[in-house]
Design a protein that fits this description.
It is a single chain. Helices cover 20% and strands 28% of the residues. The chain is an alpha/beta fold. The chain is globular and about 50 Å long. The structure holds 1-O-pyrophosphono-5-O-phosphono-alpha-D-ribofuranose.
Length: 183
Amino acid sequence: MSASIADPRLDGRAVNRIAYEAETIASRVSELGAEISADYPDGDLLVLGLLKGSFIFLGDLVRHITRPIQVDFLVASSYGSDTTSSGDVHMVYDPETVLEGRHILLVEDIVDSGRTLSRLMDLLSVRRPRSLAICALLHKHIAEHLRYPVRYVGFDAPNEFLVGYGLDHAENFRHLPYIASLQ
Ligand code: PRP
């Protein structure tokens, strides 16, 4: 199937189908926020968003967390301008906040090969947080390289190249309010 979505944001570029509508995402993100709020009854909770892909998800998610939190970011990159992960995970920004003794919730947009999360979880674990968990909006369940459980999953995602709601292809499409498939 070829491009058939009429959306001026796409500027005529090929997007195959909408995988998750904005309303579907909003409803699931609200559920995740409620779950996270209930699961952390005490202690300092630092929500760490992995940029750039999680920026919209994180912004929506934290507004559904009804307990005190702090927010910081990590920056890593594993893709170039291609549609496949290079496997070479670069740390671009490392939070300066103290992690020791705090509950850390690492927020990711999508788990693909799992290389990014494995690498980051290794790095965060050695800083002795009180707990360390992963929340991913999308999980393809193909992550042979992921050595850590994903505690919160928004959606079990198809093995397609997904864009929108923070996810990009060559830095395009991040601003789509829905998630679409390029295949
Ligand atoms: C993408 C995505 C995840 C990661 C998933 O990030 O946002 O962080 O790749 O892939 P993996 O499970 O195979 O490691 P990217 O490196 O493209 O950076 P971005 O968040 O700035 O888009």
